[in-house]
Amino acid sequence: MELEGRIKKISLKPHYVTDQFAMADHYLAAAQRNLDVDPDLAYGRSYAAMLAAGRALMGITGYIPDGHEKYYSVELFLQQFLESKITRQFGIMRQKRHTLEYDQIGIISPDDATNAITTAETFIQLIREKIAHNNPGPG
User: What does the alpha-carbon distance between residue 59 and residue 57 come to, in Å, rounded to a whole number?
Assistant: First the structure.
């Protein structure tokens, strides 16, 4: 991925991972606050929370996304470290969030938004555990 220009090596800044998780928590709280008011927004914020947690995992391994299609680069990177089921959900959410952002509003049902929040909570916790156990590697 590095040779393809999708990721680049970084020197991890002291608060990078903490900042990414703070963003994930912030976005997740925003998703929960907006669930009854705006399912589209709740869905988008759930995905943003997952993206921030994914960037935390990338950062702890010494990388950040680079080039164009950065969100897709995060997805590809995570496929090396997480089970296919959760990365598949991340990919589906990425694509649907893209549609929400650029093509069409009003496509997320309250149930979809609730499921997105639950998925984001599970995803973020999984990454926190991987990092806490000092085991960011594949598997």
Answer: 5
